[in-house]
Amino acid sequence: MRRLLLFILPILLIVAIGFTIFGIMQIRFTEERLMDDLQKKAKAVDESIEFSARNIFLNNDLKSANRLVESFQKRERLQGCVVYDKDGKILAITERITDWKDKEKAYLAEVAAKKAPRGALEKFRDSSVYSYILPVTDDENNILGMVEVIYDTSYVFTTLTSLWRRLSISLITLLVLIVLIMLLIQRRIFILPVIRLTEWFRHFQRGETDAFHSIREKDELGKLASEVEQVALSLRVARKIVSEKASERLQKEELWTEDKLRDLIHARLGDNAFFVVSNREPYMHVIDEPTGMVNCIRPASGVVTAMHPVLCACGGTWIAHGGGNADKKFVNSKDKLGVPPEDNRYILKRVWLTKEEEDGYYYGFANEGLWPLSHNTHTRPIFREPDWQMYKKVNQKFADSLLEELPVKPPLIFIQDYHFTLLPKMIKEKRPDAIVALFWHIPWPNPENFAICPYHKEILDGMLGCDLIGFHVQNHCNNFLDTANRLLESRVDTERFSVVRSGKETFIRAFPISVNGHISGSKFNVEPIREIEKLKKEYELKDKIVGLGVDRIDYTKGIIERILAIDRFLEKYPQYKKKFVFIQLAAPSRTHIKRYHDLMGEIDELVEKKNWKYLDGNWKPIIYLKRHFSQDEIEPFYMLADICIVSSLHDGMNLVAKEYVAAKKDLTGSLILSQFTGAARELTDAIQINPYSIEEFADAIKLAIEMPPEEKRKRMENMRKVISENNVYRWAGNIITELAALKKV
Ligand code: ADQ
After folding, report:
1. Which residue would you say has higher pLDDT here, 462 or 225?
2. Average pLDDT for 213-234
């Protein structure tokens, strides 16, 4: 638009200036013509009455003088006539201009002296009049008197004003016409071809790589179109080669790595684009209040931890809520950016939510309703109708945002978690060819519990829009099949492990999620190391047994039970006082929900109370670090910890347990792991506990400390083997392989 203005404005300006000059000249000319006309008329009138005036003066006939001036009274436009004697004294005046008497008339003496007529504009009342004064002389050219004719000039100004008006209207019409014509020309020769090229490029982006562009022009635009076409061709060829090479390599490699996953995606998906949808975004731009600087952080979220390496391996687009307070500053015109920021491997598209939407959909329905419903922690789920309406609205918003990105070829859409149960059906309604999978990262409850949700039918119906639904463990799959069987009109096929509803089949499978399997301390930044060194000095950690907990502050993670168990452990085994320190890294989470807010207060109070109870010199049993830590910052803690405690009351998987094992390259350390986590099924060499049994929990801490180093080594080795084999690349690879087998991707 600005460019268009730059183009049109000068033309408009030139036309307007030209037209105004022409208008001014036209007005001048008309004004001169009218005044000339007036003068001629006045002169003619004056001359026509000269004879009668002479008689009046010669005979001193005042009666006739009055008759003469009164004859002007009825004339239209004429203002009047005045008869003067030779000294300029008024002898007779037309009645309607009697106040002309009061006007100062210096010119009378001049006319009498020069005996020459005079015509000029004069001020009268509030306007101007034209006065033509004629000296009347006798035969010897002696002045007898003077006759003045006064003309109203207002019609001259009325004529000029209406001329101005007509000229202005013509100018405006002309300008509008010019703008319209320019717009038409510009659309025809510039915009239409660009639209055609953009449309073709969009099709190319969406996967129609074989179409030819329709720009036939040989001009600059035509050249641009052929250049773009060449890039498209190279891309098409490159993709094919990558996909063939990937298939070859895939058959050779055994262990799952980032490269193997990338090969699998290229081999199986080829041109089919890959999309991930989640609530939490992998990168958040947040303003640091004290400094005003913007930080780019990786949120504390299991979903992010797991999905990020997958996207780094295979590229694609990740659509998520832009929740950071500086997020809008870092996206392009389509709300997208390349991430990781330092090495763009995939695209993040941010979806914006209003405060009301976030309150209803995220805090309300998802986290006060579905989260406690799915976790066996005796926290009462709350379902409010307005939250449900907002949840539906936000699911639709994400569906719209995703649909506008989808290519023509069937895309693979991988939805994360309980925030988007309605999304699969919404997508399938518009794009039945899309391959849709949903991974449920938390436990799935039994049918009796799930039926508590007043909207259970819509949720199940929405989820069954998927081709595949994944859970961490088989038990959650079984619960889901039972739920679908009991609560929805559907057929459960126990042979194929699928649910069939209205002729559409959805496969249910267990895919235990994991971490990338090779966390290493070698690439640590200097800052985190410095921080941990400071802690070591401050709390003399070098000669202490260090326990570690790393959690989002959530009631499902069993943080309270953990503190109680540490208390009991020190009570029961006082020989460990001043020898054992427990570091808890805790990221505040969902703090707008009362239950979470209260929990934070409860933990603060309990830590304070227990530390006070045991405080001895510089030693306190619990170091509570309540903030968000980057992965770089957490890893040195894992390396330092002799024991890692994961005491979730219920957890879909729990990645902290796996991260700890992956970080323990030196095979030291023990993992205490709640039996109610998904991870407990795989990490059978961990010391498993029931976190509700504080006594057993306290004994497990003692066992972890006192376990012979060789036993610890063996257990850690076994667990590391499990994790390196079943890493997150395998998790994603298995899901894609399963989809490929089911849907012939
Ligand atoms: P969460 O309950 O969020 O997710 P969890 O498995 O406990 O996930 O992982 C939490 C992640 O956040 C870990 O990567 C951890 O390092 C990180 N983290 C924890 N505390 C942090 C802190 N203070 N600062 C920064 N980062 C921190 C859900 C389910 C889990 C499931 C995951 C993945 O509830 O059961 O394992 O998804 O599917």
Report:
1. 462
2. 70
- Model confidence at 452, pLDDT cuts 50, 70, 90, reads very high
Test site for ligand 1: of 644, 647, 654, 659, most ligand atoms within 8 A of the Cβ: 654
| Same domain (yes/no): 464, 546 | no
Q: Looking at the structure, do residues 532 and 503 belong to the same domain, yes or no?
A: no
Q: What is the CATH number of the domain that holds 37?
A: 3.30.450.20
Classify residue 222: in a domain, yes or no.
no
CA 719–ligand 1 middle distance (angstroms): 19
Q: ∠92-98-100 over CA atoms, to 5°?
A: 100
Q: Which residue spans within 352-487 are E strands per DSSP?
A: 412-416, 435-439, 468-471
Same domain for 35 and 128, yes or no, is yes
Q: What is the pLDDT of residue 236?
A: 65
Residue 423, ligand 1, Cβ within 6 A: no
User: Based on the domain organization, do 535 and 435 belong to the same domain?
Assistant: no
In this prediction, residue 660 has a pLDDT band, given cuts at 50, 70 and 90, of: very high
Ligand 1 atom with the smallest distance to the CA of 648 is 7
Q: What's the CA-to-centroid distance between 653 and ligand 1, angstroms?
A: 9
SS (H, E, C) 697-724: HHHHHHHHHHCCHHHHHHHHHHHHHHHH
Q: Which atom of ligand 1 is nearest to the CA of 651?
A: 35
Q: Report whether residue 590 contacts ligand 1, using a CB cutoff of 6 Å.
A: no
Which two tokens mark 674? 């709640």
pLDDT at 655 over 70: yes
- Give me the count of residues in the chain: 745
Determine the Cα angle at 382 with ends 427 and 506, to 5°: 30
Q: Is the pLDDT assigned to residue 447 strictly greater than 70?
A: yes
CATH code at 416?
A: 3.40.50.2000
- Of all protein residues, the one whose alpha carbon is nearest to atom 17 of ligand 1 is 300
- CA 35, CA 25: separation in Å to the nearest integer? 15
Residue 153 is predicted with a pLDDT of 85
Residue 87 to residue 681: CA distance in whole angstroms: 131
Q: 566: CA distance to ligand 1 center in Å?
A: 22
Considering the domain architecture, whether residues 431 and 548 belong to the same structural domain is answered as no
Asked if residue 495 and residue 613 are part of one domain, the reply reads: no
Residue of 283, 303, 305, 584 best suited for mutating to test ligand 1, as the one with most atoms within 8 Å of CB: 305
The number of angstroms, rounded, from the C-alpha of 404 to the middle of its chain's C-alpha atoms is 15
Structure tokens at 577: 């006082």
**Within a domain: 519:** no
Closest C-alpha residue for ligand 1 atom 20: 551
Give the range of the structural domain holding residue 479, as residue numbers without chain letter: 274-351+399-510
